[in-house]
Amino acid sequence: MSDPAALRARAEGLAAALPPLLADAEHLAQAVLLGEHGRRRAGTGDEFWQYRPAHAGDGARMIDWRRSGRSDAHFVREREWQAAQSVLLWVDASASMGFSGAKSHPTKAERARVLALAISVLLTRGGERVGLAGTGLPARRGPLQLLRIAEALGGTDPAADYGAPEARSMPPHSRAVFLSDFLGDPAPVERALTEAADKGVKGAMLQILDPVEEAFPFDGRTIFESMGGSLRHETLKAGDLRGRYLDRLAMRKARLADLARATGWHFSTHHTGESAQGSLLWLFRALERVH
């Protein structure tokens, strides 16, 4: 058993070092006004959900006789299903995520981190277990886990131009969230989702892009270079590339959306020039829709 005093001191130390990210995530989680988390399915639990008419096969001990006494029918008192889920988050920490096309916009990495921590806040409040895939941080419950997640989200992998998710550490039939720009080789993403689907893991992919990456506002002589520096292309007529670039980006999104549908996942795109609130709500509802 860990020494409670030492554990508390470590937690307080983490909290002191991470106030901006935690504060932003807490503020974002509050803004969606979701209240208490509920999966709204019948099952074992303490919270009353609804009455339903009794069916053939329902035992006498299942009948709510007080409610049934007010009508000519028999009713069963159902309770809300409250078995906790394990939700694993993968947050792309590659060099590509460090891009921002304007000083007024956060980097893709900053937006991914605050969304990851905010969805962790909402899930934790609902009693779920949350962890980070690829970091050795398994899914756990409780406020201390949020501090662990915030600490782990500070890591980056600048040596890699683009990130690739992994599903090896995901428990069977758990839930998952992938946050990335998904601009690298799509093959590793396809392998990860196929492996996840084989294990009964379902979830949501959120592609995070800067508005510049959507609009391609370049013209004339331009040097394009990857954030990691491994890719470089110079052109005198950048405007001539716009149509082909936008077509390939649309094809990439369609490929990811098709892959998500085929594996029982959900896919959406978020732009860093927009509020994070809408995408957080989308993530939360996407996890509610996967069974």
UniProtKB/TrEMBL annotation:
InterPro entries: DUF58, vWFA_dom_sf. Pfam families: DUF58. It comes from the Bacteria. SUPFAM superfamilies: vWA-like (SSF53300). Residues 50-225 form the DUF58 domain. This is Uncharacterized protein DUF58. It comes from Rhodovulum steppense.
